[in-house]
Amino acid sequence: MAAATLLRTVFGFDAFRPGQEDIVNAVTQGKNVLAIMPTGGGKSLCFQLPALVRDGVTVVISPLIALMRDQVRALREAGVEAGALTSGNTEEETAAVWDAIEAGRLKLLYIAPERLSSGAALGMLRRIGVSLIAVDEAHCVSQWGHDFRPDYLRIGELRQALDVPLAAFTATADAETRDEIVRRLFDGEAPETFLHGFDRPNIHLAFGAKDSPRKQILDFADARKGQSGIVYCGTRAKTEALAKALRDAGHLSLHYHGGMDAEDRRITETRFQREDGLIVVATVAFGMGIDKPDIRWVAHADLPKSIEAYYQEIGRAGRDGGPAETLTLFGPEDIRLRRTQIDEGLAPPEMRAADHARLNALLGLAEALHCRRSTLLRYFGETQVTCGNCDLCDTPAELFDGTEAVRKALSAILRTGEWFGAGHLIDVLQGNDTDRMRQKGHDALPTFGVGKEFDKRQWQGVFRQMMGYDLIRPDPERHGALRMTDDALPILKGEASIQLRKDSIRKATSRRPAVKAMVNEEDAPLLSALKAKRRALAEAAKVPAYIIFNDRTLVEMAEKRPNTLDEMAAIGGVGAKKLERYGDDFLEVITGEAETLHPSRRKLAGREAGSIYDRLLEVQTDLSRGPDGIDKPLTCSASLLAKVASTRPKDTGSMSRILGDKRAERFADAFLDVLREAD
Question: pTM of the prediction?
């Protein structure tokens, strides 16, 4: 069956998202493919659809058990035979997967990369007739990346051993990571590469300088009460404290980190997947395996470790395409911590330099003077950017010429021998006569007291922006003392000027933007009722709510209000299996009653054959007593009408073989006229 047909009948979509169709065609044709697509851009469909078109089994290598289980559940709900062999399987689950393999029914088999370390894995995969390897989160193969998984290095050998095409997918891959993916997975032979835009225009981007950070996070969550969100923190202790603060403020909130008991982590993951309006406060251990499409916001209570990490973490919001919001808080301590982590790490010097560059790119985004989206996407090589959905497009930054202030700060750093942190340097600039100042003799420096135009908070803002522009760095060998970088020399010598943000050296104001509603006021009550129905069905089936239908599908139902199963089938995300399983339940919420249809007609709902069936039924009614209305009554069963509508016989002979001679004599010509009209 053609990919476009399966897209509609299995997954319930009338059209591909931008870029999907070319990738699907290349994978279906058996080409080696590397696809870099934005998180939430529909990567999974690009290997799931070809798996249904191609013969044999597609093996999907995915890094997390939770992600695999969710994708398998969603595929089964759509009527696709899929299974996963993971360490988390029960004996019954594993037996069911093997039964499906041996019966030749299984189309997609999900496995973790760790399974490849077993010698038995290759023999098993050879035996079951693998025809395609799909690699999800392919950047895990790269030691340059932030999610390196050593077991991914075995995938290239697997491709050669099975001699089958490989399709690799990732959302974050800079040039170094892409090169390493090609070298490791494709043995250096360039695959057909698809690099689709990194932009997620539905996500609002915002940064804020830390100023009572707990209150800033609580205010942000309060403005979005009842929406699912993630708060990322830099430490385990902070996740627990902030989750409690959110609960005390009336939110449904849980913490998550790598130090928790495995069962407690699993409970948190499950609740987040299944419940609406839950906030998880987590370290970055949480999220890579979270495929929940209706996360409405992501906040960072601490600065992420790189621009790629930031992009991937905010990318967990709004995967359904609906509006989503982000807030990232940062301060000088974050910058100092991230620099120290890089400098004290075990990576070789060239990798440390690359990590500093990645952090610099993120700090450039944090201290951006103009549109954040264009700054972010420029890093990924995109220059044609339309935004209007970031804090700097909402309210342009106030700028001032910071050259003199920066030169004063650099002078203070140099005259104190690059041995001190920002606190002491600010005392020097402000002329604060402390015991330490006199002890070091710094009260006699020419720079003592030259910076009285700014108060302490404002100077902290200047130093933070200087760190953000990589003009100064903490020196790990001098206990974090600030030292000047080569980039600062032109400013110090008067050969270059620099603009700073005035708003970020003033006291931060608490911005509480209005929540973007998913639907208009008139449709909101119906959307709530549809969500309640979805929640009840999900709880009964013990699956995440979005596996029944995601938010976008429910929004379309609320706006279009389908009255029949045929109209319901036209809603995006309602495939044939889901229509059969849930159509009546949701139609009843919308119209107050389920549609009464014969089972044979119900199976044709949403397909062209359904309207042909209805026309055949009308014609049959007119001819049931013959053309003159005087003959003995004669009709065709609903299953016969459905067969005619589906198979569309072209001539009287074919029609007779379906209907039998007696019925064909009365109905064949009229039925053929209906079929010709439909063509």
Answer: 0.71
